[in-house]
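Shipment paperwork, digital attachment
Item: protein structure file
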Amino acid sequence: MRYLAIDLGGKRTGLAVGDDLTLIATPIEVLEIPPGPRLVEAIRAAIREHGPDELVLGLPLNMDGTSGPAAEGARAFAAELAAATGLEVRLHDERLSSAAAEADLAGRFTRKGRKRRLDAVAAARILEGFLAAGD
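Attachment content:
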């Protein structure tokens, strides 16, 4: 099965693709669009380009595992994406994915270069976790 992973942010959203055969997740792009109809349309364009069977959306739980406003926003966005795309949207815990992505990029790019890539790498980390969990 092929997946498109989404690291939803207030200003930037990272995308990555991967599948359950190779267990490889590849960052593809960062959309500098806030949540809303334009972001949904940009994700639909990525779906047309990459042909995933399902979507995996990062669920920003609190460090103690509880849900807060950000997690509720992600759940609402997941429902919006499912309705707009007809694809199943799977939620996956994204705790520490941005920190891991930052470590992946450390020393490899300028600060501006890291910022442009960070959210897509975080989406890949979310997808790697999802694939490893076998959900």
